[in-house]
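REQUEST ID: PR-0412
SUBMITTED BY: lab tech R.K.
PRIORITY: routine
TASK: structure prediction, single protein chain
INPUT:
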Amino acid sequence: MIDKAYLIFLETLCNKNRLEIIDLLNHSSLNVSQICNKLKMNQTTASHNLSRLEKCGFVTSKKIGKFTYYHLNENTIKPLMKLMESHLNNYCRKLCCSKEQELKIILRR
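STATUS: complete
OUTPUT:
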């Protein structure tokens, strides 16, 4: 039987909005407004997903002035994303003929 922690981890990762946030934070630390602007996401959606990501340790936050900046977990999630990218490039992208088809596969989930 699979441990519930695995399910929580994979369910956290298997969400289009959260994956987009993770990808964005993989490049730089941002506040909620910046995330919303870059992803064309409303603040409620962004905040809800950031809360889940923070509870599960995918991101950390730091308050600077009146803004809270979110950072990808440097110890675990950044290396995981690098490993996943390598796996995708070596195996999964071969299943896709184009970026459009790749996106359609992701969106069907």
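NOTES: The longest helix spans residues 77-90.
REVIEWED BY: pending
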